[in-house]
Each structure stands twice: as structure tokens, then as C-alpha cells.
Amino acid sequence: MSIYDAIIIGTGPAGATVARHVAAAGLNTLLLEKDTLPRVKTCGGAVSKYALSNLDIEIPDSIIERECFGARIRYGSCSLESETCERLSVMVSRDRFDHHLTKIAVDAGAELMEDVRVISVQTDNDCAIVETTVGTFRSKVVIGADGVNSVCAKNVRGSFTQQETSFALEAEIPASNEQIDNYIFNKGEFYFGIIPNGYGWVFPKDEHFSVGIAGRGQGFSRPMDAYRDFIKMLGFDYVKPRGHFVPIGGLDRKTYSNRILLVGDAAGYVDAFLGEGIAYAIASGNFAAETVINAHQKDDFSETSLASYHKRCMDSFLPNLKYSYIFSKWFYRFPNLSSRILVNNEPLLNKFIHLATGRWGYLFFMKWIALRLPYYVIKDVIGRR
Ligand SMILES: Cc1cc2nc3c(=O)[nH]c(=O)nc-3n(C[C@H](O)[C@H](O)[C@H](O)COP(=O)(O)OP(=O)(O)OC[C@H]3O[C@@H](n4cnc5c(N)ncnc54)[C@H](O)[C@@H]3O)c2cc1C
């Protein structure tokens, strides 16, 4: 049986990115996907400017449903908007976005097999052995891009514990583009204070809103009820949401072992505060591809050889994910005070929205707030008297 140079599991932004690069470098690449493409992916579909900056290909206008230039924050009866002339994100539907990335990977030479579920991955001295619902495949290296419930990750670390994940619910609520323009137009809307350790969102799309909530911890034990209450509060028609776990980023986790690399959600690379994962899926996909191409040149797929992947992620985005986790802890330690401060101080919101550009990281943002925190707290106390 022939041995592939690389097998990639999953056609999300992480897997499609790795497959495109390694196939373009001439490696004999197999891309496995358990669903039929285009497949549904539960997601808000906000692709930040930072995410786009990691992507070295253009996204066609036909896939971009809206462009966002600002945000509206809500907490209780308070509301605050901020807008810039800089495009902060584009809104996409993940079925079309991911399918587009996958088609480009196939054009670059990757072999795609749909409706093939990976059951297990084993490694030995000569290759990695991937057992699937249609048979067994062999490869020099395997990239686990199979999301939060990664099968591949079991060979690298244990599955995520409940404490290491958030839970998110999302539905597409039909609306005319005119209704969307009148409601929010070109901004993302974020609701704080409606669920513990998380938030709700309303994102503008084409002929629908993406409406969702994401939270974690014991206080978030009845997510369906929380979602129904959120929709009722918004005055929107109820559409049954889909749920999905999201890894909490910023925690130390192993992401490589002999002949295996984990990318995107499978590696736990998600912003712990906002839940943004597409940017990190693409970024880690880029670094994994680079590592795999180097490993082929050296013909060395050992854990030691693949360790350079972690270093590349560490030099790039891992510190920001760590600070997103610290910020999240900080914010939800005093959720009411934090939300009030965010919704009552425009300069703060102006800085907050710049997290989407990648120019501002959480550490920079936290330092900026720390200097002004006494003023914001005193202002809040006086305002509440
Ligand atoms: C409700 C919700 C809203 C979100 N909103 C946003 C947002 O607005 N912006 C943002 O940046 N991030 C958002 N995220 C996070 C984002 O969706 C993920 O971080 C991102 O999809 C990770 O990409 P990935 O390629 O690692 O994995 P995924 O996109 O999850 O792709 C994994 C792929 O692997 C396939 N697969 C899984 N198991 C197997 C198997 N055993 N065999 C074969 N194939 C398999 C799956 O079918 C899937 O195609 C949201 C998440 C949720 C749940």
C-alpha cells in the first residue's frame, strides 16, 4: 500500500490551510472529511481582519456577506456603539467559506475524500496509520485538524475536560437585508450580563442574522433556556439553534508528538474571551504546513523535529491567547462592574474593537486599561449613586 506524505483530517480553515500549502509544495497529500461538502458548521462566521491577514489568498466577494466596521455593546438597558473607517471583519457562512478554502487546496493538488470518518490514528517507526470508515491509510505524518472533539488529539494529549471548553449555541434568524440594515447595518452586536462567563451576539449576514450565545461554568447549565430567553429579549423569531463546544484557549497543551501535529480547535487555539478561532486555525495551519515541509526535507518526523511547530506558534499568537485567558478571568471575576465599564466608556470600546485587527493584543489592551482602571471604577461608583 502506498504511503502518503501527509494526511490531514478535517476541512475546516485549519485543515484546508495545511492541505493547500503542503500540496502546493509537492507533497502527496490526502485530506479526509467526515461530512459531504459543503457541510454545515455552527459558527458566527465573523472573520476578523487579523484572520484575513493570516490568509495569503483572497476571499471572493461572493462569499463575503457583510463587512463590519464597528461594534455595539449592550449591558442591561445601556448601549454603546463604536465605529472606525477600518474594516474589522467580514461576515461569511462557514459552509461556503470552508468549502472555498478546501477547493483551493484541491486545486493545489490535495486529494480530497468526503464522507470518510477517521476512527483512530496510530504511529509506528515507519509511518502513521489512519483507520477510517472506508479503510486504512498510511502517511509519513498526520495533521489533526478535526476540531474540538479531535480523534487525532488522543495520541498527543487527553480529550478536553469540561472545564477546558465553553458551550455555544447559534441559529440563523431570517431577516430582510433592509431589516438588518435598520437594526445593525455594519456592526457586530455583543450582549454582556445575559449569561455567566460569556456573552450573546447578533451578527449581520445576507438575509439573516447570526444569533448566538456562548458561556461556561456551572451557571450555564441550561443553555437552551438561556438561548430562548435571549431571542425573546431581542424580539426575534425563534429558530432552533445548533450547539457546539469551543475549546478555551490560552492553556498549556501539547500539540505535537511523533508523526502527529494538531492545529486549530484540535490544538485548543481559540481566544478565551471572544471565542474567535478562525484566525488561529489559519495561523496554526500555516505553521504546521511549514513544519511538515521541513520535516520532509530532513526526512525526520520525530517529536523533536516537529517541536519547531510549537515554537512558531509561541513566537506568533500563543502569548495573545494566554492573555485572552487572563483577561477573561479578570473580566468575569467582576462581570457586572466589567460590563458596566465597557458599556459606559467609549475610548475603552474604541480600543477593544481594535483587538480584531491584530495590531492590539490582549496584553497591550490590559496595560492600557490598568492605567485608567481607577478612573473608570470611581466614575462607575459616582454614576451609581
Ligand atoms: C457557535 C460558534 C460560533 C463561533 N463563531 C466564531 C466567529 O464568529 N469567528 C471565529 O473566528 N470563530 C468562531 N467560532 C470558533 C470557530 O468556529 C472555530 O475555532 C473554527 O471553526 C476552528 O477551525 P478548525 O479548522 O480547527 O475546526 P473545524 O472548523 O471544527 O473543522 C473540523 C473539521 O473536521 C471534520 N472532522 C471532525 N472529526 C472528524 C473525523 N473523525 N474524521 C474526519 N473529519 C472529521 C469536521 O467535519 C470539520 O469539517 C465559533 C464557534 C462556535 C461553536
Secondary structural class: alpha/beta
Uncertain spans, ≥5 residues at pLDDT below 50?
Answer: none
Using the CA coordinates, give the radius of gyration.
21 Å
Helix content: 25-40%
Mean pLDDT: 96
Bound molecules: flavin-adenine dinucleotide
In terms of DSSP E residues, the strand content is 15-25%
- Biggest beta sheet attributes: 7 strands, mixed
Shape: globular
CA-CA gap between termini: 76 Å
Per DSSP, the total helix count is 11
Q: CATH superfamily of the largest domain, please?
A: FAD/NAD(P)-binding domain
Count of all domains: 3
Q: State the strand order across the main sheet.
A: 7-6-15-16-17-14-18
CATH architecture of the largest domain: 3-Layer(bba) Sandwich
From the 3D structure, determine the CATH topology of the largest domain: FAD/NAD(P)-binding domain
CATH level-1 class of the largest domain:
Alpha Beta
User: How many strand segments?
Assistant: 20
